[in-house]
Specification:
The structure is a homodimer. With about 200 residues, chain A is mainly alpha-helical. Helix content of chain A is about 75%, strand content about 0%. The first copy, chain A, is built from 11 helices and no strands. Chain A is elongated, with a radius of gyration of 20 Å. Chains A and B meet through helix 8, helix 9, helix 10 and helix 11 of A and helix 8, helix 9, helix 10 and helix 11 of B.
């Protein structure tokens, strides 16, 4: 048990060092030796946890990906309607900006590698597809409960994910350019005016 | 005249070579010597046109930026209402995807440098601000002509640019993930349902 705990600590420690190196120098310019030096571990310890540099890179990505569903879980309050849950998601945007800001150089490395490597590309598009599926389920639930008109859930999900990605990118690049949290809530309000049940 | 023409050709030739090197090897790993070798010009010719590597990089960015207003000009048909012009812009999305696809590695280099260098960062956020201003003018014109409700043009512009950025990013990363041109038109239709004048 203590041994396993130490192993997990070492793995997390190596990943933090790898993220540091990739962010500072870029993926291509980082060697396993440099990650080991940064983490203060032997190459043996590195290769015990990861077959190579790309595996560490993908593990960082999967770690980030594991957080994808968190806001959807958090927005699932008991007895809340789908429009209320959509507003709940919009209200989290400011928090997402703050946690994403420090990770941008790492994201840029993911995209850079994705443009060169089909395996990384596949992993990079995965979260967008998962978000679109999660939003499509939410919209379908709104149609089923009668709080939304009978719209195409996939199309609305594509629009919502596009909006979220665009807000996130601009909010991180240009935090002073607008009140992005307020914009997110305004956007949901605008869309719900179009999506909501009209008074009969 | 012939001399000036040759100078412009050389400048464009150096920029194309620089874009090639930055895309392939990244900005940091590219030297002026490599750009010159790729372009088949002397260092003297390079420094005649650009004070250094960063100036060539920024010139590439400004070249891209010069195209920012083109879709807005193209969507300005005589006598068209603002909702019609918004649909016209949505109809161009597919074309924008196709022209952007090959430039993604270069964009990623812009973002990568922007995260390190305040001058590049300033230039990188500039097109988003310009797009937001252009959309805000368009929305204000719609309110003035009576085709849109009295909404906050800045807020609506932030939403529209976020939507465009998110559609573009997903469409380029994951062209097979959805029919992005159709999604763009559906998004404008949804927003106009919320923004449009309601029947009295």
């Amino acid at each position: 048990m203590a041994h396993q705990r130490r192993g997990e600590d070492t793995r997390a420690h190596i990943l933090a060092a790898a993220a540091d190196c990739f962010t500072r120098a870029g993926y291509d310019a980082t060697s396993v030796a440099e990650i080991c030096a940064q983490a203060g571990v032997s190459k043996g310890a590195f290769y015990h946890h990861f077959p190579g540099k790309q595996a560490a890179f993908m593990a960082l990505f999967e770690h980030w990906l594991a957080g994808v569903d968190v806001p959807f879980q958090a927005a699932r309050g008991a007895g809340e309607s789908v429009p209320e849950r959509l507003f709940g998601l919009a209200g989290m945007v400011q928090h997402v900006f703050e946690s994403a800001a420090g990770q941008i150089p790492m994201f840029i490395e993911f995209w850079r590698q994705a443009a060169k490597d089909p395996q990384v590309w596949q992993a990079t598009i995965e979260p967008y597809r998962r978000y679109r599926m999660a939003f499509a389920e939410l919209i379908a639930a709104g149609v089923a409960e009668g709080s939304l008109r009978p719209v195409d859930p996939d199309m609305v999900a594509q629009v919502l994910v596009s909006l979220g990605v665009g807000l996130l990118l601009q909010g991180v690049l240009d935090p002073a350019g607008a009140d992005w949290g307020r914009t997110a809530e305004g956007a949901i309000a605008m869309l719900l005016e179009g999506l909501g049940k009209q008074p009969v």
